[in-house]
Amino acid sequence: MPAPIRLRELIRTIRTARTQAEEREMIQKECAAIRSSFREEDNTYRCRNVAKLLYMHMLGYPAHFGQLECLKLIASQKFTDKRIGYLGAMLLLDERQDVHLLMTNCIKNDLNHSTQYVQGLALCTLGCMGSSEMCRDLAGEVEKLLKTSNSYLRKKAALCAVHVIRKVPELMEMFLPATKNLLNEKNHGVLHTSVVLLTEMCERSPDMLAHFRKLVPQLVRILKNLIMSGYSPEHDVSGISDPFLQVRILRLLRILGRNDDDSSEAMNDILAQVATNTETSKNVGNAILYETVLTIMDIKSESGLRVLAINILGRFLLNNDKNIRYVALTSLLKTVQTDHNAVQRHRSTIVDCLKDLDVSIKRRAMELSFALVNGNNIRGMMKELLYFLDSCEPEFKADCASGIFLAAEKYAPSKRWHIDTIMRVLTTAGSYVRDDAVPNLIQLITNSVEMHAYTVQRLYKAILGDYSQQPLVQVAAWCIGEYGDLLVSGQCEEEEPIQVTEDEVLDILESVLISNMSTSVTRGYALTAIMKLSTRFTCTVNRIKKVVSIYGSSIDVELQQRAVEYNALFKKYDHMRSALLERMPVMEKVTTNGPTEIVQTNGETEPAPLETKPPPSGPQPTSQANDLLDLLGGNDITPVIPTVPTSKPASAGGELLDLLGDINLTGAPAATPAPASVPQISQPPFLLDGLSSQPLFNDITTGIPSITAYSKNGLKIEFTFERSNTNPSVTVITIQASNSTELDMTDFVFQAAVPKTFQLQLLSPSSSIVPAFNTGTITQVIKVLNPQKQQLRMRIKLTYNHKGSAMQDLAEVNNFPPQSWQ
């Protein structure tokens, strides 16, 4: 049989193929020749054939028939054969195939080989694709090589040990003695892999974390030597000594210093040195500075050091590299709540990022800008954000409009400014605002009695000839219907009044009714406004009657019904028309987070209480009451009002899984649906009682251990606890939901109920999506009032979508630590 062609010739031949079909034909022909050679047990050219097979595998063609040939090459005594054999094993084999177990003995023999390069091949292969069975069998050999004096083998053994620990965590203690002297090594390769090994052990075991905290001074010394050492051609990258090792050490210091005062104190000085001495002109230096910033923010560092870290991120915002600017904005967004004043110093730079061409940077800058808004800068920030709303892409307008509404509601310096701002948003991006924008603005206008004439005049001018922004037209129609008499009389004092006749006002509303751009809802607003004007105007009542009667035969059923009812008012009940159509009274504000809410003040010291609505009265069905009282298996349960809206219809049934989903979500505390024998529970405003200028909650958890409340199907819920400074009976529970599966969990809703001797309130969650692979968490705050200091019990309900299926589960939490309720 002729000698097969060499790998180089095969590559050259394949590259000459002009079409995909021609390439496939060449590959199939060569694969047939390789199979024939394998069947004939041709030892001479086995290495060459496997190498060609690996190249075809890299091109995406099947090469599984070469797996056993790789094992034969590994068993060969020639180094060239072993090298190709191990490479083939790493590419073609994995732990899902039983074939890989056949090579365990070969790897064990090669780990004890007299040649270091053969040992290195075996270590690389085991560290790449070793299964848990292989790791258990060969861990002893790896640990032995970890203690050898050969630095080439030690660095490979350390990386292999990382893989062994990931596969079999219980073998971690086996490597503990070997790690003692690893950091004394002068070789940077060994140091690098040693730090990777220590990081892996600390992340997987709290005991190892406590054990390795004593190594902080040694790590600080190594990092200091790297910074202060002179030029070393072997390790220099763009003028910085071994940046890869520096980054790894900073990550390990971050883990060791987290929640530990002594370790954090020991590394404060070196972190300041790294932050001030690292060159920022090259990307290498920026990478080290970014890791330094993350470490400073994660440990218990000094306030001056945190300001330095935020200033570094501020310099990143001026960098020409888009990736660096994005990283800086993301990091500032995470720290803005803890170091608000330091981030505020870079406000102008952050606002400039709103003009960036990159949409990712633009979105991060928008989110960070809203986080920086407070009562002191509301006018300037809103000016910039409104300018951004004018010019941004459509996909930003909805989020930007919502953010402006929320900020204006919290920090508006005056009602006129508030009304002007929201009207500007409606004029600019009315089609993108959320559904509750119209009723919220109507409520704001109604409550601002002194602004009625000014508002109706502004709205009238805003919709003259332009009906494209439907929410704006709806608000304008409502206001004209309510305050049309003020518009006609020209009583506006805030700006120069305009002269408008009754007929001109009706012309506008009739134009809205017949406009092709008007939706059915907008036409309903306009028709109702016209009807209301029949009691505000005196000269045009007959015209109004005519317009209303025309729409009595409209093809729009909603519009037709309104018109028929209004016609009846004119004819049969005309004596009642004035009373029915009189002005709306001042509307009461309804909150969305239960009876009270602690408002984020973004750097200001005064929390703002929200208005509350008293519980609705009225009897409740006894069957529903009993269902609710059965939530924890007794008749002493009080429900919690979740903040996440639900679209479920009310259920009269008593199914436990539907129980929390049917709770009233209007934001006002729902009356407990209890039978006559069970007393009604009132909702005292306990969270704001005795509010003073001191912090509402402790900044640092006062030694209360956290608990795992739920862990099932990849979803994990953890509770951490704080106690209120102003009211010792209030416990603040922060839930953290994480997802270890490979797909995101969407539409996540957390709900809870407690016994009636407690009062419980859920604040809004940080998101509704739990990211996969534990790459992020959802946080949500629960506030519990426990005046009688009884042991806390809680029933939780979880609903979410995962892998295309709707999931829901109930669990009871009874393992609250005594410090959280005593």
Automatic annotation (TrEMBL):
Main location: cytoplasm
Keywords: Coated pit, Cytoplasm, Cytoplasmic vesicle, Golgi apparatus, Membrane, Protein transport, Transport
GO cellular component, one term: trans-Golgi network
This protein's record includes keyword Protein transport: yes
GO annotation terms (biological process): intracellular protein transport; vesicle-mediated transport
Topological category with respect to the lipid bilayer: Peripheral membrane protein
GAE domain mapped to chain residues: 702-817
Localization, UniProt: Cytoplasm, Perinuclear region; Cytoplasmic vesicle, Clathrin-coated vesicle membrane; Golgi apparatus; Membrane, Coated pit
InterPro entries per record: Adaptor_Complx_Large_Subunit, AP1_complex_gsu, ARM-like, ARM-type_fold, Clathrin/coatomer_adapt-like_N, Clathrin_a/b/g-adaptin_app_Ig, Clathrin_app_Ig-like_sf, GAE_dom
UniProt-annotated stretches for the region Disordered: 597-627
Function: Subunit of clathrin-associated adaptor protein complex 1 that plays a role in protein sorting in the late-Golgi/trans-Golgi network (TGN) and/or endosomes. The AP complexes mediate both the recruitment of clathrin to membranes and the recognition of sorting signals within the cytosolic tails of transmembrane cargo molecules.
Family to which this protein belongs: Belongs to the adaptor complexes large subunit family.
Protein name as annotated: AP-1 complex subunit gamma
Organism: Acinonyx jubatus
Phylogenetic placement of the source organism: Eukaryota, Metazoa, Chordata, Craniata, Vertebrata
Gene that this sequence comes from: AP1G1
